[in-house]
Amino acid sequence: MAKLDISQIEHIAKLSRLELTDEEKKLYSEQLSSVLDYVEQLSEVDTENIETTANITGLKNVFREDEVEESGISHDDIKLNAPEFKDKSFIVPGVFE
Amino acid sequence: MKLYELTIKEASEKLKAGEITSVELTEAIFDRIDKVESKVGAYITLCKEKALEMAQASDKQYAISHKRRTEIDGIPIAIKDLFLTKGVKTTAASNILNDFIPIHESTSTKNLWKAGAVLIGKTNLDQFAMGSSTETSAYKTSKEFDSTTRNPWDLERVPGGSSGGSAAAVAADECIAAVGTDTGGSIRQPASLCSITGLKPTYGRVSRFGVMAMASSLDQVGPMTKTVEDAAILLKYLSGWDKYDSTSSKKDVPDYARSINKNIKGLKIGIPKEFFAEGLSPEVKEIVEEGIAKLKSLGAEIVDVSLPMAKYALAVYYILMPAEVSSNLARYDGIRYGHSTLKRHPELVSGSHGIPDQVRNDSLLSVYEKSRAEGFGDEAKRRIMLGSYVLSAGYYDAYYKKAQKVRTLVKKEFEEVFSKVDVIVTPVTPTPAFKFGEKVSDPLSMYLSDVMTVPVNPAGLPAISIPAGFISEGDKELPVGLQLIGPMWGEQTLLNVGCAFQDATEFHKKKPSL
Protein backbone atom coordinates (compact mmCIF):
# COMPACT_ATOMS: atom_id res chain seq x y z
CA MET A 1 0.00 0.00 0.00
CA ALA A 2 1.17 3.45 -0.81
CA LYS A 3 2.41 5.27 2.27
CA LEU A 4 1.27 8.60 0.89
CA ASP A 5 -2.23 8.77 -0.53
CA ILE A 6 -3.51 11.49 -2.83
CA SER A 7 -4.85 13.67 -0.01
CA GLN A 8 -1.49 13.55 1.76
CA ILE A 9 0.26 14.41 -1.51
CA GLU A 10 -2.08 17.39 -1.87
CA HIS A 11 -1.20 18.52 1.65
CA ILE A 12 2.54 18.22 1.00
CA ALA A 13 2.16 20.02 -2.34
CA LYS A 14 0.48 22.88 -0.51
CA LEU A 15 3.32 23.04 2.02
CA SER A 16 5.75 22.96 -0.91
CA ARG A 17 3.92 25.71 -2.83
CA LEU A 18 3.58 23.49 -5.90
CA GLU A 19 0.52 23.19 -8.10
CA LEU A 20 0.25 19.57 -9.26
CA THR A 21 -1.77 17.93 -11.99
CA ASP A 22 -3.82 14.83 -11.15
CA GLU A 23 -1.32 12.78 -13.09
CA GLU A 24 1.58 14.16 -11.04
CA LYS A 25 -0.27 13.49 -7.78
CA LYS A 26 -0.67 9.86 -8.70
CA LEU A 27 2.92 9.49 -9.89
CA TYR A 28 4.41 11.20 -6.81
CA SER A 29 2.21 9.18 -4.50
CA GLU A 30 3.82 6.01 -5.87
CA GLN A 31 7.37 7.32 -6.20
CA LEU A 32 7.59 9.08 -2.84
CA SER A 33 6.04 6.08 -1.12
CA SER A 34 8.73 3.81 -2.50
CA VAL A 35 11.47 6.18 -1.29
CA LEU A 36 9.86 6.30 2.16
CA ASP A 37 9.75 2.49 2.19
CA TYR A 38 13.47 2.51 1.47
CA VAL A 39 14.41 5.00 4.21
CA GLU A 40 12.29 3.05 6.68
CA GLN A 41 15.34 0.81 7.24
CA LEU A 42 16.74 3.46 9.61
CA SER A 43 14.33 2.14 12.24
CA GLU A 44 16.65 -0.88 12.52
CA VAL A 45 19.40 1.37 13.90
CA ASP A 46 19.58 1.88 17.65
CA THR A 47 19.97 5.62 18.23
CA GLU A 48 19.28 5.65 21.94
CA ASN A 49 21.40 8.42 23.55
CA ILE A 50 22.95 9.41 20.22
CA GLU A 51 23.34 13.13 19.53
CA THR A 52 22.13 14.62 16.27
CA THR A 53 24.64 16.01 13.76
CA ALA A 54 23.75 19.13 11.81
CA ASN A 55 27.18 20.59 11.06
CA ILE A 56 29.86 17.99 10.42
CA THR A 57 32.95 20.08 11.22
CA GLY A 58 31.61 20.88 14.68
CA LEU A 59 31.11 24.60 14.18
CA LYS A 60 28.69 26.20 16.57
CA ASN A 61 27.05 29.54 15.92
CA VAL A 62 29.35 31.72 13.84
CA PHE A 63 28.90 35.39 14.67
CA ARG A 64 30.19 38.56 13.09
CA GLU A 65 29.78 42.25 13.79
CA ASP A 66 26.52 43.61 12.50
CA GLU A 67 28.05 46.20 10.19
CA VAL A 68 26.51 47.86 7.17
CA GLU A 69 28.50 47.25 3.99
CA GLU A 70 28.15 48.41 0.42
CA SER A 71 26.56 45.60 -1.57
CA GLY A 72 27.57 47.10 -4.90
CA ILE A 73 24.17 46.04 -6.18
CA SER A 74 21.82 48.70 -7.49
CA HIS A 75 18.06 48.72 -8.03
CA ASP A 76 18.78 48.58 -11.74
CA ASP A 77 20.74 45.36 -11.21
CA ILE A 78 17.84 43.83 -9.32
CA LYS A 79 15.36 44.98 -11.94
CA LEU A 80 17.32 43.03 -14.55
CA ASN A 81 16.12 39.66 -13.25
CA ALA A 82 12.82 40.69 -11.68
CA PRO A 83 9.65 39.44 -13.38
CA GLU A 84 7.78 42.67 -12.54
CA PHE A 85 9.55 45.69 -11.06
CA LYS A 86 8.45 49.29 -10.67
CA ASP A 87 9.54 52.29 -8.57
CA LYS A 88 12.31 50.29 -6.87
CA SER A 89 9.80 47.60 -5.85
CA PHE A 90 8.78 44.10 -6.87
CA ILE A 91 5.22 43.98 -8.11
CA VAL A 92 2.98 41.30 -6.62
CA PRO A 93 -0.75 40.64 -6.74
CA GLY A 94 -2.67 42.29 -3.91
CA VAL A 95 -2.93 40.30 -0.73
CA PHE A 96 -5.72 42.37 0.83
CA GLU A 97 -8.91 43.71 -0.75
CA MET B 1 50.58 16.96 -28.71
CA LYS B 2 47.54 19.09 -29.47
CA LEU B 3 47.16 22.16 -27.29
CA TYR B 4 43.67 21.16 -26.15
CA GLU B 5 45.01 17.87 -24.81
CA LEU B 6 47.35 19.59 -22.34
CA THR B 7 46.94 19.27 -18.59
CA ILE B 8 47.02 22.36 -16.35
CA LYS B 9 50.59 21.46 -15.40
CA GLU B 10 51.78 21.11 -19.01
CA ALA B 11 49.91 24.16 -20.29
CA SER B 12 51.15 26.23 -17.37
CA GLU B 13 54.78 25.35 -18.12
CA LYS B 14 54.36 26.34 -21.76
CA LEU B 15 52.63 29.58 -20.79
CA LYS B 16 55.34 30.41 -18.28
CA ALA B 17 58.08 29.69 -20.83
CA GLY B 18 56.35 31.89 -23.39
CA GLU B 19 56.00 28.94 -25.81
CA ILE B 20 52.27 29.52 -26.12
CA THR B 21 49.86 32.31 -25.24
CA SER B 22 46.61 32.02 -23.36
CA VAL B 23 44.80 33.28 -26.47
CA GLU B 24 46.29 30.44 -28.54
CA LEU B 25 45.32 27.90 -25.90
CA THR B 26 41.80 29.32 -25.59
CA GLU B 27 41.34 29.33 -29.36
CA ALA B 28 42.54 25.72 -29.53
CA ILE B 29 39.86 24.80 -26.98
CA PHE B 30 37.15 26.55 -28.98
CA ASP B 31 38.32 24.81 -32.18
CA ARG B 32 38.02 21.52 -30.33
CA ILE B 33 34.56 22.50 -29.10
CA ASP B 34 33.52 23.30 -32.69
CA LYS B 35 34.59 19.81 -33.65
CA VAL B 36 33.14 17.62 -30.89
CA GLU B 37 30.53 19.56 -28.94
CA SER B 38 27.71 18.58 -31.33
CA LYS B 39 28.32 14.97 -30.24
CA VAL B 40 29.09 15.47 -26.55
CA GLY B 41 26.80 18.34 -25.59
CA ALA B 42 28.75 19.26 -22.47
CA TYR B 43 27.89 22.95 -22.33
CA ILE B 44 24.75 24.97 -21.72
CA THR B 45 26.49 28.30 -22.39
CA LEU B 46 29.75 29.03 -24.18
CA CYS B 47 31.50 32.35 -23.49
CA LYS B 48 33.92 32.69 -26.39
CA GLU B 49 34.04 36.46 -26.46
CA LYS B 50 34.51 36.77 -22.72
CA ALA B 51 37.04 33.93 -22.72
CA LEU B 52 39.18 35.61 -25.35
CA GLU B 53 39.04 38.87 -23.42
CA MET B 54 40.17 37.10 -20.27
CA ALA B 55 42.93 35.32 -22.20
CA GLN B 56 44.09 38.60 -23.71
CA ALA B 57 44.20 40.19 -20.27
CA SER B 58 46.31 37.30 -19.01
CA ASP B 59 48.68 37.59 -21.98
CA LYS B 60 48.90 41.36 -21.57
CA GLN B 61 49.96 40.92 -17.97
CA TYR B 62 52.59 38.42 -19.12
CA ALA B 63 53.87 40.81 -21.79
CA ILE B 64 54.49 43.45 -19.11
CA SER B 65 55.89 41.31 -16.29
CA HIS B 66 57.19 38.25 -18.23
CA LYS B 67 55.58 36.25 -15.49
CA ARG B 68 52.46 34.16 -15.09
CA ARG B 69 50.98 35.04 -11.70
CA THR B 70 49.87 31.48 -10.83
CA GLU B 71 49.79 27.96 -12.29
CA ILE B 72 46.28 28.62 -13.55
CA ASP B 73 47.00 32.03 -15.06
CA GLY B 74 45.78 31.81 -18.66
CA ILE B 75 44.26 28.33 -18.27
CA PRO B 76 40.79 27.74 -19.82
CA ILE B 77 38.38 26.29 -17.28
CA ALA B 78 34.76 25.10 -17.56
CA ILE B 79 32.32 25.78 -14.72
CA LYS B 80 29.24 23.77 -13.78
CA ASP B 81 26.18 25.90 -14.46
CA LEU B 82 25.31 25.90 -10.78
CA PHE B 83 27.88 28.60 -9.93
CA LEU B 84 26.83 32.22 -10.16
CA THR B 85 28.97 33.95 -12.76
CA LYS B 86 28.41 37.68 -12.89
CA GLY B 87 26.93 38.77 -16.20
CA VAL B 88 26.94 35.22 -17.62
CA LYS B 89 23.63 33.38 -17.84
CA THR B 90 23.30 30.79 -15.07
CA THR B 91 20.50 28.24 -15.20
CA ALA B 92 21.08 25.32 -12.78
CA ALA B 93 19.75 23.43 -15.84
CA SER B 94 16.26 24.40 -14.75
CA ASN B 95 13.52 26.28 -16.56
CA ILE B 96 12.91 28.24 -13.39
CA LEU B 97 16.15 30.13 -14.16
CA ASN B 98 16.06 30.03 -17.94
CA ASP B 99 17.03 33.65 -18.42
CA PHE B 100 18.77 34.44 -15.16
CA ILE B 101 21.86 36.68 -15.29
CA PRO B 102 23.65 36.74 -11.92
CA ILE B 103 24.59 40.10 -10.48
CA HIS B 104 27.40 38.72 -8.37
CA GLU B 105 30.09 36.03 -8.62
CA SER B 106 30.54 32.90 -6.51
CA THR B 107 33.58 33.07 -4.23
CA SER B 108 35.25 29.95 -5.62
CA THR B 109 35.05 31.11 -9.24
CA LYS B 110 36.07 34.63 -8.24
CA ASN B 111 39.20 33.06 -6.75
CA LEU B 112 39.95 31.37 -10.07
CA TRP B 113 39.55 34.54 -12.14
CA LYS B 114 41.68 36.45 -9.64
CA ALA B 115 44.41 33.85 -10.24
CA GLY B 116 44.14 34.50 -13.99
CA ALA B 117 42.04 31.54 -15.17
CA VAL B 118 39.83 31.86 -18.26
CA LEU B 119 36.11 31.02 -18.26
CA ILE B 120 35.26 28.84 -21.28
CA GLY B 121 31.62 28.26 -20.52
CA LYS B 122 28.97 26.83 -18.22
CA THR B 123 28.51 23.07 -18.28
CA ASN B 124 25.35 21.02 -18.19
CA LEU B 125 24.15 19.24 -15.05
CA ASP B 126 21.20 17.48 -13.57
CA GLN B 127 18.62 20.10 -12.70
CA PHE B 128 19.77 21.86 -9.49
CA ALA B 129 22.42 19.11 -9.25
CA MET B 130 19.70 16.55 -8.54
CA GLY B 131 20.52 13.35 -10.33
CA SER B 132 23.18 10.86 -11.35
CA SER B 133 23.00 11.01 -15.14
CA THR B 134 22.55 14.67 -16.22
CA GLU B 135 19.23 13.50 -17.72
CA THR B 136 17.18 15.71 -15.38
CA SER B 137 18.61 18.80 -17.09
CA ALA B 138 15.92 20.95 -18.69
CA TYR B 139 18.34 21.52 -21.57
CA LYS B 140 18.27 18.96 -24.33
CA THR B 141 21.45 19.87 -26.13
CA SER B 142 20.79 17.91 -29.31
CA LYS B 143 17.72 17.37 -31.43
CA GLU B 144 19.23 14.24 -32.90
CA PHE B 145 19.24 12.34 -29.62
CA ASP B 146 16.55 12.89 -27.03
CA SER B 147 19.20 13.27 -24.41
CA THR B 148 21.34 15.81 -22.70
CA THR B 149 25.09 15.49 -22.28
CA ARG B 150 26.53 12.25 -23.66
CA ASN B 151 29.39 10.12 -22.40
CA PRO B 152 32.41 10.73 -24.70
CA TRP B 153 33.35 7.03 -24.36
CA ASP B 154 29.95 5.84 -25.64
CA LEU B 155 27.50 8.42 -26.94
CA GLU B 156 24.54 6.17 -26.14
CA ARG B 157 25.37 6.27 -22.46
CA VAL B 158 25.04 8.87 -19.73
CA PRO B 159 28.10 10.83 -18.55
CA GLY B 160 26.97 10.40 -14.95
CA GLY B 161 25.88 13.31 -12.83
CA SER B 162 25.13 15.67 -11.57
CA SER B 163 28.38 17.31 -12.82
CA GLY B 164 28.04 15.35 -16.09
CA GLY B 165 28.78 18.30 -18.36
CA SER B 166 32.01 19.15 -16.52
CA ALA B 167 33.16 15.50 -16.63
CA ALA B 168 32.32 15.12 -20.32
CA ALA B 169 34.02 18.44 -21.18
CA VAL B 170 37.26 17.33 -19.49
CA ALA B 171 37.13 13.83 -21.03
CA ALA B 172 36.49 15.26 -24.51
CA ASP B 173 39.27 17.88 -24.15
CA GLU B 174 36.74 20.72 -24.43
CA CYS B 175 38.52 22.52 -21.58
CA ILE B 176 41.80 22.11 -19.72
CA ALA B 177 40.01 21.51 -16.42
CA ALA B 178 36.57 21.95 -14.89
CA VAL B 179 34.84 22.64 -11.60
CA GLY B 180 31.87 20.75 -10.19
CA THR B 181 29.94 20.24 -6.99
CA ASP B 182 29.37 17.08 -4.97
CA THR B 183 26.47 16.54 -2.56
CA GLY B 184 26.29 12.74 -2.75
CA GLY B 185 28.79 11.85 -5.48
CA SER B 186 28.15 14.45 -8.17
CA ILE B 187 31.86 15.02 -8.81
CA ARG B 188 33.17 11.48 -8.24
CA GLN B 189 30.53 9.44 -10.07
CA PRO B 190 30.69 11.32 -13.42
CA ALA B 191 34.50 11.45 -13.07
CA SER B 192 34.51 7.66 -12.79
CA LEU B 193 32.10 7.13 -15.69
CA CYS B 194 34.11 9.49 -17.96
CA SER B 195 37.64 8.43 -16.88
CA ILE B 196 38.80 11.69 -15.35
CA THR B 197 39.98 12.72 -11.88
CA GLY B 198 37.35 14.24 -9.55
CA LEU B 199 37.95 15.44 -6.00
CA LYS B 200 35.30 16.16 -3.39
CA PRO B 201 37.10 18.12 -0.64
CA THR B 202 36.34 18.07 3.08
CA TYR B 203 33.12 19.92 3.95
CA GLY B 204 34.13 23.55 4.61
CA ARG B 205 37.34 23.46 2.55
CA VAL B 206 35.83 25.47 -0.33
CA SER B 207 33.33 28.31 0.06
CA ARG B 208 29.81 27.51 -1.07
CA PHE B 209 28.91 31.20 -1.44
CA GLY B 210 27.33 31.86 -4.81
CA VAL B 211 26.86 28.19 -5.61
CA MET B 212 23.15 27.44 -5.84
CA ALA B 213 22.47 25.39 -2.75
CA MET B 214 21.03 21.92 -2.93
CA ALA B 215 21.78 20.52 0.54
CA SER B 216 23.84 23.05 2.47
CA SER B 217 25.20 20.62 5.07
CA LEU B 218 26.48 18.26 2.34
CA ASP B 219 27.38 20.37 -0.73
CA GLN B 220 31.03 20.86 -1.58
CA VAL B 221 32.84 22.39 -4.57
CA GLY B 222 35.76 20.55 -6.17
CA PRO B 223 38.10 20.17 -9.16
CA MET B 224 37.47 17.85 -12.13
CA THR B 225 40.69 17.37 -14.05
CA LYS B 226 42.77 15.22 -16.38
CA THR B 227 45.25 14.24 -13.65
CA VAL B 228 45.52 14.11 -9.85
CA GLU B 229 48.32 16.65 -10.02
CA ASP B 230 45.96 19.09 -11.77
CA ALA B 231 43.34 18.50 -9.07
CA ALA B 232 45.99 19.44 -6.49
CA ILE B 233 46.79 22.64 -8.40
CA LEU B 234 43.17 23.68 -8.82
CA LEU B 235 42.15 22.82 -5.25
CA LYS B 236 44.58 25.39 -3.86
CA TYR B 237 42.87 28.22 -5.74
CA LEU B 238 39.33 27.08 -4.94
CA SER B 239 39.96 26.64 -1.22
CA GLY B 240 39.95 28.98 1.74
CA TRP B 241 37.90 30.79 4.30
CA ASP B 242 35.18 33.12 3.07
CA LYS B 243 33.34 35.58 5.24
CA TYR B 244 30.23 34.98 3.13
CA ASP B 245 30.12 31.26 3.98
CA SER B 246 30.02 30.81 7.74
CA THR B 247 30.65 27.06 7.35
CA SER B 248 33.91 27.58 5.42
CA SER B 249 37.04 26.69 7.35
CA LYS B 250 39.80 28.99 8.57
CA LYS B 251 42.35 26.19 8.27
CA ASP B 252 45.41 27.12 6.20
CA VAL B 253 45.35 26.06 2.58
CA PRO B 254 48.50 24.05 1.84
CA ASP B 255 50.26 24.18 -1.52
CA TYR B 256 48.89 20.74 -2.35
CA ALA B 257 50.72 20.30 -5.65
CA ARG B 258 54.16 21.22 -4.27
CA SER B 259 53.60 19.06 -1.19
CA ILE B 260 52.86 15.87 -3.13
CA ASN B 261 54.80 12.90 -1.81
CA LYS B 262 54.51 9.92 -4.10
CA ASN B 263 56.17 7.52 -1.70
CA ILE B 264 53.33 5.47 -0.27
CA LYS B 265 55.45 2.73 1.33
CA GLY B 266 53.91 1.61 4.60
CA LEU B 267 50.75 3.64 4.07
CA LYS B 268 47.76 1.75 5.44
CA ILE B 269 44.87 1.32 3.03
CA GLY B 270 41.57 0.03 4.40
CA ILE B 271 39.26 -2.08 2.25
CA PRO B 272 35.69 -2.10 3.63
CA LYS B 273 34.07 -5.41 2.73
CA GLU B 274 30.60 -3.85 2.68
CA PHE B 275 31.51 -2.02 -0.54
CA PHE B 276 32.34 -5.27 -2.34
CA ALA B 277 29.11 -7.09 -1.58
CA GLU B 278 26.16 -7.93 -3.81
CA GLY B 279 25.12 -5.39 -6.44
CA LEU B 280 28.72 -4.72 -7.49
CA SER B 281 29.32 -5.76 -11.10
CA PRO B 282 31.99 -8.49 -11.31
CA GLU B 283 33.88 -6.54 -14.00
CA VAL B 284 34.00 -3.41 -11.82
CA LYS B 285 35.08 -5.52 -8.86
CA GLU B 286 37.94 -7.04 -10.83
CA ILE B 287 39.24 -3.63 -11.93
CA VAL B 288 39.03 -2.20 -8.42
CA GLU B 289 40.85 -5.24 -7.02
CA GLU B 290 43.59 -4.81 -9.62
CA GLY B 291 43.86 -1.17 -8.56
CA ILE B 292 44.24 -2.21 -4.94
CA ALA B 293 46.91 -4.75 -5.97
CA LYS B 294 48.74 -1.94 -7.78
CA LEU B 295 48.76 0.19 -4.63
CA LYS B 296 50.05 -2.80 -2.70
CA SER B 297 52.87 -3.26 -5.21
CA LEU B 298 53.80 0.37 -4.61
CA GLY B 299 54.35 -0.45 -0.95
CA ALA B 300 51.00 0.23 0.68
CA GLU B 301 49.76 -2.09 3.37
CA ILE B 302 46.27 -3.45 2.68
CA VAL B 303 44.01 -3.81 5.72
CA ASP B 304 40.51 -5.28 5.86
CA VAL B 305 38.10 -2.93 7.62
CA SER B 306 34.37 -2.86 8.21
CA LEU B 307 31.84 -0.02 7.84
CA PRO B 308 28.52 -1.63 8.75
CA MET B 309 26.79 1.77 9.13
CA ALA B 310 27.64 2.83 5.58
CA LYS B 311 24.66 0.93 4.21
CA TYR B 312 22.36 3.27 6.14
CA ALA B 313 24.04 6.37 4.74
CA LEU B 314 21.90 6.38 1.60
CA ALA B 315 18.71 6.37 3.68
CA VAL B 316 20.14 9.16 5.85
CA TYR B 317 20.96 11.05 2.68
CA TYR B 318 17.47 10.68 1.21
CA ILE B 319 15.98 12.27 4.31
CA LEU B 320 18.46 15.05 5.09
CA MET B 321 19.13 16.11 1.49
CA PRO B 322 15.47 16.59 0.46
CA ALA B 323 14.78 18.35 3.77
CA GLU B 324 17.51 20.87 2.96
CA VAL B 325 16.36 21.05 -0.67
CA SER B 326 12.81 21.93 0.33
CA SER B 327 14.17 24.82 2.37
CA ASN B 328 16.81 26.00 -0.13
CA LEU B 329 14.51 25.93 -3.13
CA ALA B 330 11.83 27.95 -1.33
CA ARG B 331 13.59 31.06 -2.64
CA TYR B 332 12.36 30.40 -6.19
CA ASP B 333 9.02 32.10 -5.74
CA GLY B 334 8.31 33.77 -9.08
CA ILE B 335 8.55 37.22 -7.48
CA ARG B 336 12.15 38.35 -7.32
CA TYR B 337 13.96 36.54 -10.15
CA GLY B 338 13.66 33.55 -12.40
CA HIS B 339 10.59 32.19 -14.11
CA SER B 340 7.31 33.74 -13.03
CA THR B 341 3.76 32.99 -14.02
CA LEU B 342 3.26 36.76 -13.74
CA LYS B 343 4.85 37.03 -17.16
CA ARG B 344 2.15 34.80 -18.59
CA HIS B 345 -0.62 36.52 -16.67
CA PRO B 346 0.20 40.25 -16.57
CA GLU B 347 -3.39 40.93 -15.53
CA LEU B 348 -2.46 39.62 -12.09
CA VAL B 349 -0.47 42.77 -11.40
CA SER B 350 -2.09 45.40 -13.56
CA GLY B 351 -4.36 46.76 -10.87
CA SER B 352 -7.83 45.78 -9.80
CA HIS B 353 -9.76 47.42 -12.64
CA GLY B 354 -11.24 44.99 -15.08
CA ILE B 355 -9.69 41.88 -13.54
CA PRO B 356 -12.00 38.89 -13.82
CA ASP B 357 -13.06 37.53 -10.44
CA GLN B 358 -11.35 34.18 -10.79
CA VAL B 359 -8.04 35.95 -11.46
CA ARG B 360 -8.48 38.36 -8.58
CA ASN B 361 -9.11 35.41 -6.34
CA ASP B 362 -5.98 33.88 -7.75
CA SER B 363 -3.95 35.07 -4.85
CA LEU B 364 -0.28 35.63 -4.26
CA LEU B 365 -0.21 31.99 -3.19
CA SER B 366 -1.15 30.88 -6.65
CA VAL B 367 1.68 32.94 -8.16
CA TYR B 368 4.05 30.87 -6.03
CA GLU B 369 2.34 27.59 -6.83
CA LYS B 370 2.04 28.17 -10.56
CA SER B 371 5.51 29.68 -11.04
CA ARG B 372 7.13 26.77 -9.20
CA ALA B 373 5.01 24.16 -10.97
CA GLU B 374 5.93 25.63 -14.36
CA GLY B 375 9.60 26.17 -13.58
CA PHE B 376 10.81 23.13 -11.64
CA GLY B 377 11.42 19.77 -13.27
CA ASP B 378 10.18 16.45 -11.97
CA GLU B 379 13.14 15.53 -9.79
CA ALA B 380 13.23 18.94 -8.11
CA LYS B 381 9.51 18.65 -7.34
CA ARG B 382 9.94 15.15 -5.94
CA ARG B 383 12.73 16.22 -3.63
CA ILE B 384 10.98 19.39 -2.47
CA MET B 385 7.89 17.36 -1.61
CA LEU B 386 9.86 14.63 0.13
CA GLY B 387 11.65 17.29 2.16
CA SER B 388 8.44 19.08 3.09
CA TYR B 389 7.04 15.76 4.25
CA VAL B 390 9.95 14.66 6.45
CA LEU B 391 10.03 18.10 8.07
CA SER B 392 6.28 18.38 8.54
CA ALA B 393 4.51 18.28 11.91
CA GLY B 394 4.28 14.75 13.24
CA TYR B 395 7.03 13.31 11.02
CA TYR B 396 10.04 15.45 11.95
CA ASP B 397 11.25 13.21 14.78
CA ALA B 398 10.62 9.95 12.96
CA TYR B 399 12.49 10.96 9.83
CA TYR B 400 14.64 14.08 10.12
CA LYS B 401 15.86 13.75 13.68
CA LYS B 402 16.38 10.01 13.31
CA ALA B 403 18.48 10.60 10.18
CA GLN B 404 20.57 13.23 11.98
CA LYS B 405 21.33 10.68 14.70
CA VAL B 406 22.30 7.96 12.26
CA ARG B 407 24.48 10.57 10.56
CA THR B 408 26.40 10.86 13.84
CA LEU B 409 26.91 7.08 13.83
CA VAL B 410 28.12 7.06 10.21
CA LYS B 411 30.63 9.79 11.05
CA LYS B 412 31.86 8.02 14.20
CA GLU B 413 32.35 4.76 12.35
CA PHE B 414 34.55 6.45 9.75
CA GLU B 415 36.54 8.12 12.56
CA GLU B 416 37.17 4.75 14.17
CA VAL B 417 38.37 3.23 10.92
CA PHE B 418 40.64 6.22 10.28
CA SER B 419 42.30 5.62 13.64
CA LYS B 420 43.62 2.40 12.04
CA VAL B 421 44.17 3.27 8.37
CA ASP B 422 45.29 6.31 6.34
CA VAL B 423 43.00 5.89 3.36
CA ILE B 424 39.94 3.80 2.44
CA VAL B 425 39.67 2.41 -1.09
CA THR B 426 36.34 1.41 -2.68
CA PRO B 427 34.63 1.31 -6.07
CA VAL B 428 32.97 4.59 -7.11
CA THR B 429 29.89 3.07 -8.72
CA PRO B 430 28.48 -0.47 -8.79
CA THR B 431 28.37 -0.47 -12.61
CA PRO B 432 29.92 1.44 -15.52
CA ALA B 433 27.90 4.14 -17.36
CA PHE B 434 24.32 3.09 -18.08
CA LYS B 435 22.23 3.90 -21.15
CA PHE B 436 19.88 6.85 -21.49
CA GLY B 437 16.44 6.22 -20.09
CA GLU B 438 17.55 3.10 -18.20
CA LYS B 439 16.98 4.54 -14.73
CA VAL B 440 15.35 7.91 -15.16
CA SER B 441 11.79 6.57 -14.85
CA ASP B 442 12.53 4.81 -11.55
CA PRO B 443 13.92 7.38 -9.09
CA LEU B 444 14.83 4.80 -6.45
CA SER B 445 17.03 2.78 -8.83
CA MET B 446 18.78 6.03 -9.81
CA TYR B 447 19.31 6.84 -6.12
CA LEU B 448 20.79 3.39 -5.50
CA SER B 449 23.49 4.00 -8.13
CA ASP B 450 25.05 6.45 -5.63
CA VAL B 451 25.35 3.95 -2.80
CA MET B 452 29.19 3.97 -2.80
CA THR B 453 29.72 7.72 -3.02
CA VAL B 454 26.98 8.99 -0.70
CA PRO B 455 28.38 7.85 2.70
CA VAL B 456 31.27 10.33 2.35
CA ASN B 457 29.03 13.43 2.32
CA PRO B 458 27.07 13.02 5.56
CA ALA B 459 30.47 12.27 7.18
CA GLY B 460 32.01 15.43 5.64
CA LEU B 461 35.06 13.53 4.37
CA PRO B 462 37.24 14.23 1.33
CA ALA B 463 37.27 11.62 -1.45
CA ILE B 464 38.70 11.35 -4.94
CA SER B 465 37.79 9.31 -8.00
CA ILE B 466 40.64 8.29 -10.30
CA PRO B 467 40.62 6.29 -13.56
CA ALA B 468 41.40 2.61 -12.88
CA GLY B 469 40.49 0.68 -16.01
CA PHE B 470 37.97 -0.09 -18.74
CA ILE B 471 35.30 -2.68 -19.45
CA SER B 472 34.96 -3.70 -23.11
CA GLU B 473 31.37 -3.54 -24.30
CA GLY B 474 31.10 -4.27 -28.03
CA ASP B 475 33.44 -1.83 -29.76
CA LYS B 476 33.29 0.57 -26.80
CA GLU B 477 35.37 0.84 -23.68
CA LEU B 478 33.57 1.91 -20.55
CA PRO B 479 35.66 3.59 -17.84
CA VAL B 480 35.80 2.43 -14.24
CA GLY B 481 37.19 4.52 -11.39
CA LEU B 482 38.69 3.92 -7.99
CA GLN B 483 37.48 5.87 -4.97
CA LEU B 484 39.96 6.94 -2.30
CA ILE B 485 38.39 8.28 0.90
CA GLY B 486 40.43 10.23 3.44
CA PRO B 487 39.93 11.47 7.00
CA MET B 488 38.73 15.05 7.61
CA TRP B 489 41.19 17.50 5.97
CA GLY B 490 43.09 14.54 4.47
CA GLU B 491 43.16 15.91 0.92
CA GLN B 492 46.95 15.77 0.76
CA THR B 493 47.03 12.04 1.48
CA LEU B 494 44.44 11.38 -1.23
CA LEU B 495 46.46 13.44 -3.71
CA ASN B 496 49.66 11.62 -2.72
CA VAL B 497 48.13 8.19 -3.25
CA GLY B 498 46.38 9.31 -6.43
CA CYS B 499 49.62 10.70 -7.89
CA ALA B 500 51.53 7.53 -7.00
CA PHE B 501 48.81 5.50 -8.75
CA GLN B 502 48.85 7.68 -11.86
CA ASP B 503 52.66 7.53 -12.00
CA ALA B 504 52.39 3.74 -12.14
CA THR B 505 49.42 3.49 -14.53
CA GLU B 506 48.32 4.87 -17.91
CA PHE B 507 44.51 4.75 -17.58
CA HIS B 508 44.23 8.52 -17.09
CA LYS B 509 46.12 9.16 -20.34
CA LYS B 510 43.73 7.20 -22.53
CA LYS B 511 41.35 9.32 -24.62
CA PRO B 512 37.92 8.49 -26.04
CA SER B 513 37.74 8.45 -29.85
CA LEU B 514 35.37 11.18 -30.97
Question: How would you explain this protein's 3D organization?
Answer:
- The complex is a heterodimer of chains A (97) and B (514).
- Helices cover 36% and strands 4% of the residues of chain A.
- By secondary structure, chain A is mainly α.
- In chain A, strands 1-2 form a two-stranded antiparallel sheet.
- The model of chain A has no long low-confidence stretch (mean pLDDT 91).
- With 514 residues, chain B is α/β, with parallel strands linked by helices.
- Chain B contains 16 helices and eleven strands.
- Chain B has helices spanning 8-16, 22-40, 48-65, 107-114, 164-171, 188-194, 228-238, 282-297, 310-328, 357-361, 364-375, 378-391, 397-418, 443-448, 456-459, 491-504, and strands at 43-46, 76-80, 118-123, 177-182, 197-200, 220-225, 268-272, 301-305, 423-427, 463-473, 476-485.
- Chain B has an eleven-stranded mixed sheet with strand order 1-3-2-4-6-5-10-11-9-7-8, with helices on both faces.
- In chain B, strand 2 (76-80), helix 4 (107-114) and strand 3 form a beta-alpha-beta unit.
- The longest helix of chain B has 22 residues, at 397-418.
- The chains are: A mainly alpha (97), B alpha/beta (514).
- The interface between A and B is large, with 53 and 74 residues.
